[in-house]
Amino acid sequence: MQIDIAGKVREKKLAHNNVLLPLYEAIVNSIHAIEDAKLSEKGLIEIDLIRLNQEEFPYDDLQKLPPIIDFHIKDNGIGFNEENYDSFNFAHSSYKFEKRGGKGIGRITWLRAFEKAIIESQFKEGEVFKKRTFNFVPTKKGIEKESLIEIESKEDFWSTIVILKNLKENYRRWCNNNSEDIAFKIIEHCFSFFLDSNCPTIVLKDVNKPIVVNDYFSMYINKAVEGKPFTINTNKFDLDIVKLYNTRTDNKVHLLAHKREVINYPISDTIPEIPDYFVDEIGQKFSISIYVSGDYFDENGRVNEERTGVIFDNEESMFEEAVTFQDLKDGVAEIIREHFKEHLVEFSEKKFNRVRTFVTSHPRYRHLLKYKPNDILKISNSNDDSKLEVELFKIQQKLELEVLNETKVELQGIENKEDKMNDGLYEKILDVGNAKLSEYILHRKHILDLLELNLRKKENKYSTEEVIHNLIFPLRKTSDEISLDEHNLWVIDDKLSFHDYLASDKTFKSNERTESKSTKETDLLIFNKAHLLTDDEKPYSSIIIVEFKRPMRNDYTDSENPINQINTYVREIINNKVLDKDGRPFDIKDKTPIYAYIVCDLTPNMRKFAEDQNFTVLPDNDGYFNYNRNYYLYVEIISFDKLIRDSKNRNKVLFEKLNLPTV
């Protein structure tokens, strides 16, 4: 049966973050070829990194190296003799399966990422020395420009070169561009091979800077590899702990099959308190890498064809020897926790102390220490308070959702009034509720502080009325467009929050609750819900108008008189039809009360207007009121000072409960 190579290439996927997998495949093939050659001396693998327009750039400018486009991999292994070449020509070849777990399709990944592979191999077949060359390309047959010739014997005749040619554009930006990074990636993937004393010398050549990867491996492990065998459900695993000194952070668990990395995952997945670095007894920093291997991973079918995933047993498996991914993670985590117990306890306490300090000034998150300690441990070790608050907010949202779901389940199980809610859940509900109340109170304090700040003169001028308006209710919005949390009508009166409809900075013409064609606009026009316990058929119990004025304004003209403005708005409402929520008109003239608030500073100009129109001064002298019987209109002029003072007094008890200043 023939195999369509082009079809296999299209079929196999290669994620962009696995762009180096074709290189790893070539390196492992070279290691196997050297093992099969049974050389009297140590094997050698040389890897040349070829960059775009390499001949044209200066070698000393290492910060701006062009992208890598080719890899040249040369080894002194057994070569493409007839047996190996026949195996190469069969997709899914079982040639390497028994001893090395070969899938027989590794070379297909070459053509997923590269335009083609060029192979040149010198080898000995019997007593004859030969040279084979061919191109491996994404065509139906897959092999082009095939050649096999006999050559004369020479001392260094053992050599095979695989050229991975022209890395495709969509993979180039994902390819590590730094040769040191590539060296460490090779170490991670081939870790078990490097532990073998017979591991070939692997040299990475980039422009004029060769790297002996084996030397990097020695530096990588610093002679600090500790083996920790463990068992899960009769399956035996080997775990190697590597302390990484003077290198980049890893802190990952690497799962190996047939000595090669298949997948890795962050240790923080199971040990959230893991620090970026540990510190040893002499003060040196190190991170850790964990390598896990075992027959379980080497079994047929445990690793997918692309070698990018492990197929674990599922949780429903009835077999005694079954191992789930979570089983494996838990087993590894237990060993790490025990091995680094002292370090982890210290770092956990540091993180909790950091959060404890933070919540003293942000009490709405205090309950998370009690209910979400593991989630808190997962927070990064940043010292940035704003980032910490974002993470705590996410945890709080998660907890609130959990409490909501738990409560629903609990209430469904309560069949009569004698049944009681679970004490633990009841306590959790109270704690979460108190946290939300704390957040609510802190928000109110913050808004009042902002309002006070914007009433002060800055750079010889006061804030505009739009700034004040926007703090109370967003400009050019309606109550249908924002949530309850997005406005602060409570600053004026808590009852204003429970309205039916509100239009902010909208003309009468654009207001969907009036039939007026006027282009005049109120700052806030509020339609209050009808009372439930009444036979009145009117859709609204009252209408409210709010006007904001610039702080300390003292230059109103007669035509700008705020009281006259209110009267104009009221006439516009009364003389035109008002619509209910269904768009049905009703007559507002029939004794529907209208309340108006003018929020301003009581400058001499403003006081003159109030007193000229027979307004009554409030007992605290910080405002005026008047009732117009003709319009069923109550108007109150409120100074900014009174607005803030009264709002603080209404919230004083709440502020004191959180030890917030009330003056």
Q: Could you name the key traits of this structure?
A:
34% helix; Histidine kinase-, DNA gyrase B-, and HSP90-like ATPase; 24 strands; 8-stranded mixed β-sheet; 4 domains; Heat Shock Protein 90; 7-stranded mixed β-sheet; 663 residues; HATPase_C_sf; alpha+beta
Using DSSP, what is the number of strands?
24
Q: For the record, give the distance between the C-alpha atoms at the N and C termini, rounded to a whole number.
A: 88 Å
Shape: elongated
Rounded to the nearest angstrom, the radius of gyration is: 38 Å
Low-confidence runs of at least 5 consecutive residues = 93-97
Predict the CATH topology of the largest domain: Heat Shock Protein 90
SS element count, helices: 20
The helical percent reads: 25-40%
The CATH architecture of the largest domain: 2-Layer Sandwich
Mean pLDDT reading: 84
Helix/strand-derived category reads: alpha+beta
Our count of domains comes out at 4
CATH C-level class of the largest domain: Alpha Beta
Strand line-up across the major sheet: 5-4-3-6-2-1-7-8
CATH superfamily of the largest domain: Histidine kinase-like ATPase, C-terminal domain
InterPro entries: HATPase_C_sf
Protein name: Histidine kinase-, DNA gyrase B-, and HSP90-like ATPase
SSE layout and pairing:
Blueprint (H helix, E strand, L loop, with lengths): L4 H7 L9 H17 L6 E8 L16 E8 L6 H7 L8 H4 L7 H6 E12 L2 E9 L6 E8 L8 E9 L1 H4 L6 H11 L1 H5 L5 E6 L2 E4 H9 L3 E3 L2 E3 L2 E11 L6 E6 L2 E7 L11 E2 L5 E10 H4 L26 H15 L1 H20 L7 H4 L1 H5 L7 H29 L9 H32 L10 H8 L26 E9 L13 E9 L10 E9 L13 H13 L3 E2 L5 E2 L7 E7 L3 H9 L3 E2 L5 E6 L4 E7 H18 L6
Protein name: Histidine kinase-, DNA gyrase B-, and HSP90-like ATPase
